[in-house]
């Protein structure tokens, strides 16, 4: 995963030469903090989203963090609804794999506000609430995305 992120940044930068105001695909990187059981951990990841209707999109997020010497990897499928310009509400389902343990189910509820820097680049501060095996965690961060 650590090698994928630098490659992803290179691909994003190479795409930035063109702009597309009718974009239906989005690739992004995410950096944030996850709060679980009173402790914070840095979380980073990659995101892909596809617009399927004017206010609806589907996507996938791959995230990684580290807690107590264990790597934590998550894969989450999301459905997003945009009730107003710039706002995105999401619900998702996926799996979290903690090294040395069985994968657990994740249910995610999220809220984001997208700020377009250019026609093809955006920043999106977001917050998410995850339910994992009966426990809650909160994830807050920012995404840098390329729309094409």
From TrEMBL:
Residues 1-23 form the signal peptide. The keyword Signal applies. Keywords: Signal. It comes from the Bacteria. It comes from Aliikangiella coralliicola. This is Porin family protein. The keyword Signal applies.
């Amino acid at each position: 995963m650590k090698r994928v992120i630098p490659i992803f940044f290179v691909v994003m930068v190479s795409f930035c030469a063109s702009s597309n105001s009718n974009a239906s695909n989005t690739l992004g990187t995410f950096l944030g903090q996850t709060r679980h059981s009173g402790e914070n951990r840095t979380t980073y990841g990659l995101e892909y989203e596809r617009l399927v209707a004017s206010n609806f999109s589907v996507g996938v997020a791959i995230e990684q963090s580290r807690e107590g010497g264990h790597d934590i990897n998550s894969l989450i499928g999301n459905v997003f609804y945009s009730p107003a310009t710039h706002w995105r509400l999401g619900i998702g389902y996926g799996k979290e794999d903690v090294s040395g343990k069985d994968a657990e189910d994740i249910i995610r509820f999220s809220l984001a506000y997208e700020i377009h820097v250019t026609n093809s680049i955006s920043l999106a501060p977001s917050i998410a609430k995850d339910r994992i095996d009966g426990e809650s965690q909160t994830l807050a961060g920012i995404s840098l995305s390329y729309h094409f």
